[in-house]
Design goal:
Rossmann fold, alpha/beta
Length: 144
């Protein structure tokens, strides 16, 4: 599994959790973050801002994504058919180009009325509080 943005708070948590569960983890970071990423205990580190390194990356079963834009779009293309792209920054613009990849995204925007308020029993798309605030999510079913 590739964790994009592995040097950040959410990404490092995802990398640690995946390793704890026995996954082979590739930490995707900026080239300047290599030293910090190596301390995560990932099996491999790849520079997401190095086009050659990104192009050389072998297909993966899953991506846990915390980055946006062109990089997220490129990473979606690295997921094997039948794999998953899970993102906390929304679905990449090219998500519909990969119908065989399950894209699951979750976006939290503090202060927005359509963002979730944390509490027990708060599930994607479900009411989370008495004000009827819903989790802002996008789900696209896996293709054939």
């Amino acid at each position: 599994m590739l964790v994009a943005g592995a040097s950040g708070g959410v990404g490092s948590s995802a990398a640690f959790t995946a390793k704890e569960l026995g996954a082979r983890v590739i930490a995707g970071v900026l080239e300047k973050q290599f030293a910090a990423a190596r301390r995560l205990g990932a099996d491999q580190v790849v520079a997401l801002d190095d086009e050659d390194a990104l192009n050389a990356l072998a297909p993966v079963d899953a991506v846990a994504n915390t980055v946006r834009g062109k990089t997220a779009e490129q990473l979606l293309g690295k997921v094997k058919p039948g794999g998953m792209f899970a993102s906390v920054t929304g679905a990449p613009a090219n998500a519909n180009d990969y119908p065989s990849v399950r894209v699951v995204s979750y976006v939290f925007a503090p202060g927005r009325q359509d963002s979730p308020r944390h509490g027990p029993g708060c599930e994607l798309g479900e009411t989370c509080d008495p004000d009827r605030t819903k989790v802002a999510s996008q789900r696209r079913p896996r293709g054939p």
